[in-house]
């Protein structure tokens, strides 16, 4: 199998990132691995789609760090590859990072669609990712599973929402990820509401979300695969992210701390509530953030912390993910043109 990982750029990748974990697991299994960035596609005059990909040497790597160091080294250079030769293209970029270069934000989605036409399995499904490019996609999930939310640019709307919830709300931008631009309004900060609205509103629409008291204990990052909780022998790919004492954001790279967590009936019920939508949209690998019995985020682009989940659980969750990808390739080979990409993505 030849598998390509689409990322924002090599400079911002890390040996511990989920993409590296998955790519390394693919290499361990003897698959041909390559990396692609937004500027690497080429649609040629004969209508063939090519990528200037960084193809990893097929050899045994000492560990993930060795794999990553090789990727970053001068030994791995971009070379043209016909997309028709690539079995799977895994879209693992974060569009919000490329907000200042709009052409790059949707490159994976646009060329992912073209790759599908040429027989490549694209995960997650690019058509559905196109609808999930901002947090408005979150509103398409059942209201029972979501914290009460308002999306507006009008200060009066947000102030009324804050009053309705006695000032206990979270404010964040419609675009963005990783906890960027997130504010919690409470009795201490209510006098700063105008400044907060102005600061977030400069870049677009504002999300106002009812504060869920259970957030004091942090949120739970929970991986779903093919619409179902990712697990090995009853151990779930999940962790609790606890914010630092001086920050409301529990995101790991925003200073949050990862802890082991038990997944119970509440989390499984939330996952089941949103499962039909994820399956219908061909969302193969998803990370959901749960507080209490509500989802606060649904990351369908580049959910992270898989390595930390594996470390805390004592198992390697990249293995069932690669098992599933290999199975999709086999299904596609055994049933040519029988399934569209959206359905194949969750088989």
UniProtKB/TrEMBL annotation:
Cofactor dependence: Mn(2+); Mg(2+)
EC number of the protein: 6.3.2.3
Keyword Magnesium recorded: yes
Keywords on record: ATP-binding, Glutathione biosynthesis, Ligase, Magnesium, Manganese, Metal-binding, Nucleotide-binding
Catalytic activities: gamma-L-glutamyl-L-cysteine + glycine + ATP = glutathione + ADP + phosphate + H(+)
Domain ATP-grasp: 135-326
Uppermost EC category: ligase
UniProt-listed Pfam families: GSH-S_ATP, GSH-S_N
Keyword Ligase part of the UniProt annotation: yes
InterPro entries linked: ATP-grasp, ATP_grasp_subdomain_1, Glut_synth_pro, GSHS_ATP-bd, GSHS_N, PreATP-grasp_dom_sf
Metabolic or biological pathway: Sulfur metabolism; glutathione biosynthesis; glutathione from L-cysteine and L-glutamate: step 2/2
HAMAP family noted in UniProt: GSH_S
Family: Belongs to the prokaryotic GSH synthase family.
PANTHER family in UniProt: GLUTATHIONE SYNTHETASE (PTHR21621:SF4), RIBOSOMAL PROTEIN S6 MODIFICATION PROTEIN (PTHR21621)
Protein name as it appears in the record: Glutathione synthetase
UniProt organism field: Sphingomonas caseinilyticus
